[in-house]
User: Fold these one by one.
Assistant:
Number 1:
Amino acid sequence: MTEYLLIALALLGVLILGALGLVVPRLRRRPEPPPPETEVRTRAEEELAGPPVEAPEADVSTGILVEPPPVVVEVPPLVVEVPAVEVPEPTAGRLVRLRSRLARSQNVLGKSLLSLLAREHLDEDVWEEIEDSLITADVGIEPTQEIVGRLRERTRVLGTRSATDLRTMLAAELVEALDPGLDRSLRTAPKDGRPAVLMVVGVNGAGKTTTCGKIARVLIADGRSVVLGAADTFRAAAADQLETWASRVGAETVRGPEAADPASVAFDAVRRGIDTGVDTVLIDTAGRLQNKVGLMDELGKVKRVVEKHGPIDETLLVLDATTGQNGLEQARVFTEVVNVTGVVLTKLDGTAKGGIVIAVQRRLGIPVKLVGLGEGKDDLAPFDPVQFVDALLGTEPPARDA
């Protein structure tokens, strides 16, 4: 019994010693205490500060601290490129220079008519073909009947002469149909201490804002100083487009925020023109359909607000020559709202229906004052009936048929 007791005590002693061997090393390996707060901050500041900055050196001979020279970083000067101001082509003789642009219109109003007139026998069938050619060219029924009637009378009285004589007779009749006595001048000179005011109106898609920029170039080419008013506030790009046109010729643009009141912008443009003493203020208005009463009433409001400064000198209606007879209805409605004083006929180079010039004037009594003959920036020309007809008919009359 005593032996068993001794064995149990021995085993108990072994277990106690083993447990102590496991606990004591762990008690010895306690974690190091954290560094003081000041030391932590110092390390963080060093990391943020980057590499150490050298302290000022001391001059050994004098003991005075010497600061190192500052590091100078050279920044290249900012160069702002100012676009060169363009000089528009002179307007005198532009129709003559652009006569090749009327080549497509010559096929109807020029070459085909001359070919018909040059036939040896001008019977009823020939005269009907002449009438059809003029009507197809959008001259209109009544003007066509008058032109053909006078031509028949001339050839009956004078006889069918040479091709040159026939060309001269046709040119005279077309010029007469264009009413050369109409006043086609643009009133752009300042008067009574205020600039002349020109308002440009038209339907959507007629190229009105582009034409407005080209009109500004026409005015500047003729020696006028111009301020442009971007009163088309419904189309986001309209004001930017107009400002681009103006900057090319050194003109100023007055614009407002998007969706601003067009009448307010137009009013501010005229006031700016008065303050700066320019010759002409050119106001671009929003394109609109002639059958939308609300939009047309708003155009009337722009006119009334601008006239608080004084009367509007010119209201120019931009018409697309390719719209044909529909352009006459457009012109009629705009005339009732804002009293149109002149027509700008665009895209005349891209259509064989140049007779719309005659139809507009005969139906409305409004002179065509400017014509657009291409996409170029100086392809807008003052309209002259004689030069226009001469360009339509070309220089060489056809030979007479045998």
Note: The first helix runs from residue 2 to 28.
Number 2:
Amino acid sequence: MDDATTSNDIRLREGSSIAQRLVVAGSAAAVALCFTPGLFTHDALEIVISVVALVVGAGFVVGIMMAPAVVWIITPKEILIGRQRPFGKLQTRIVAKDDISGLQVPGSKRVKARFQLVFTLASGERLTSPPISDVTHVRDTVARVATQFDVPNVEAPRNPLDASNPEMHLGEPLEAFSARDIRIVALIAVALSAVPYAYKLWRGWPPSHVDILLLPLGALAAFAVYRYANLVTGAFWIVREGDIRVERLWGDGAPRADHIEGHNVKAITVDRRGRSEDEHCIVVIRLQSGGRFRSPRIGSRVEARAVGAEIVRRLGIGPEASQI
């Protein structure tokens, strides 16, 4: 969820609220219950599928509801770790400053701009914190923690979204698909559309209207791949003081760049692109002209809000336009 600073304390949280868990668990239970009619049939295969679906659904619901919520409170002298399951007691642990011998900050393989503090204790045990949600101040947070616990030689994490960077990078630099790859995909589209027609001719059967209709559809699909394949490469944002450079590709692979300045922005919000608010949140900028720019995927809603707040600061956007 989020990290907050109260006086000299750093708070790191992880775990969904009960309301969020109930929504996700209820959706999983509803999907699983859709398979219950198969239990009342005389088809052995349908019965097996229904039982497997119900068991998997029940396991999914239990896993969601029993996942613990974790909070770390890092003070200058110790780390207080609290862990609680929805229907269990709060479990606490205190790690004293003198017990800490090392600190590392590995990045996430799944989400590029996600970092966690990994402490090595004198006993050799390793403790991994919840993610640092303010991804724009990871280096400051790491430096502060390393100073508090007198941990030497802590390598500063490489964070493309850090506010200390002259340029914040969202996404990856773009590269056009090779002409060879595009031709291969286009040929595959044509071949797949022609397979039913060719099969009917080979067996001596008359092709149906659907088989004939697939031929021009395959040709159109091949043309679309050849003409517009590079449009799906996404965008690369470079956030600087005063403006954002948005790099994209035209369908033929030629580069395209747009610039966003603060006076052009009508509203800036955080939105979700995908199913999960923990992984698929983005920043959306609406312009005075009516145009809209969606950033590459950032991560959780809290992480996206941190990035959005830094964009607001760099562009000098007024509070009336910011909906972060």
Note: DSSP finds six helices and 15 strands in the chain.
